[in-house]
Amino acid sequence: MTNPDLQTVTKVTHWTDTLFSFRVTRPASLRFRSGEFVMIGLPGDNGKPILRAYSIASPSWDDELEFYSIKVANGPLTSRLQHVQPGDPIILRPKPVGTLVHDALKPGFRLWMLATGTGFAPFASLLRDPETWEKNERVVMMHTCREAGELEYGRKLVEDLQNDPLIGELVAGKLHYYPTTTREAGPFMGRITDNLTSGKVFTDLGLPGPLDPEIDRAMVCGSLAFNKDVAAVLDGFGLHEGANSAPGDYVIEKAFVGDGV
Ligand SMILES: Cc1cc2nc3c(=O)[nH]c(=O)nc-3n(C[C@H](O)[C@H](O)[C@H](O)COP(=O)(O)OP(=O)(O)OC[C@H]3O[C@@H](n4cnc5c(N)ncnc54)[C@H](O)[C@@H]3O)c2cc1C
Ligand SMILES: NC(=O)c1ccc[n+]([C@@H]2O[C@H](COP(=O)([O-])OP(=O)(O)OC[C@H]3O[C@@H](n4cnc5c(N)ncnc54)[C@H](OP(=O)(O)O)[C@@H]3O)[C@@H](O)[C@H]2O)c1
């Protein structure tokens, strides 16, 4: 008997001890908007699937689906998921949802993508979607992690964008990438909240600041604490939160639930 929700792993890449990405086959019927998430998982020992929310990291035009994942040592799903190999089955519930979509934002000029940790995943999708570049004159990707190695998946993806036959020309002159670390020395450091409020990101990138609700839009994805603090910063600059049902100046999605592992 076949399970209609089973897909097959096609590629696995380990980025650090705690981060990996993998690609799976895409059900022919699955349609999604870049930035959305789905439930994926593995069969549990008792036969009941262990399912978790995952942002789709690949763009909506891709033939396969990509995911970017944490490895939680005792995590019910990722303690096992981190060992998947090409050819292995993955459960995928094909019901994409989420707020990090262009439809939930009012038209703007400059789009800020604000992510910590695996919160980069939805932006890995959106950065590779032509719609992002057609709808915005400037895109600023701020990604912050504790250590430099945790930025590598995003750094490589941004580097590859420029050489991408589909996106490369659209991206030229529009993308500003601002990766920072907070617990390891690097060329750029500091929390996203601090770099926005101090104006450091504008100075470092040579962009006009501060944030302006007339031209700036933002998409936010990180821990609950990060999301809450960024929302306060964006509110302070006069931006208003939006949703699928009522587009606004910024939208927020959780990268994970919980305080720590
Ligand atoms: C909307 C949404 C989208 C998500 N997208 C992704 C994604 O694209 N990639 C991804 O790796 N996870 C994502 N997650 C988290 C994911 O659903 C699982 O929590 C994660 O895979 C760990 O599962 P687990 O069963 O091993 O451990 P869980 O029991 O689910 O988590 C154990 C603890 O680990 C910590 N933790 C869980 N996930 C993360 C994380 N991503 N980063 C840092 N700490 C974490 C939390 O403190 C949590 O309490 C998303 C969560 C939500 C709500
Ligand atoms: N990443 C690791 O190396 C590591 C190792 C062991 C355990 N863990 C556990 O895994 C969990 C998730 O780790 P994570 O590193 O993916 O996520 P995280 O703790 O949310 O940190 C990711 C980045 O976001 C920043 N940040 C956190 N809260 C913020 C806020 N309120 N406002 C602005 N910036 C904020 C952090 O800066 P700061 O550094 O200033 O906090 C860090 O640069 C942690 O709770 C931790 O217990 C992680």
UniProtKB/TrEMBL annotation:
EC primary class: oxidoreductase
Cofactors (names): FAD
Record-linked CDD domains: FNR1
Documented EC number(s): 1.18.1.2
InterPro entries from the UniProt entry: Cbr1-like_FAD-bd_dom (IPR008333), FAD-bd_FR_type (IPR017927), FNR_bac (IPR033892), FNR_nucleotide-bd (IPR039261), FNR_type-1 (IPR051930), OxRdtase_FAD/NAD-bd (IPR001433), Riboflavin_synthase-like_b-brl (IPR017938)
Family designation: Belongs to the ferredoxin--NADP reductase type 1 family.
FAD-binding FR-type domain: residues covered: 2-103
Keyword terms, alphabetized: FAD, Flavoprotein, NADP, Nucleotide-binding, Oxidoreductase
Protein name: ferredoxin--NADP(+) reductase
Catalysed reaction equations from the record: 2 reduced [2Fe-2S]-[ferredoxin] + NADP(+) + H(+) = 2 oxidized [2Fe-2S]-[ferredoxin] + NADPH
Organism in which the protein naturally occurs: Pararhodobacter zhoushanensis
Keyword Transmembrane: no
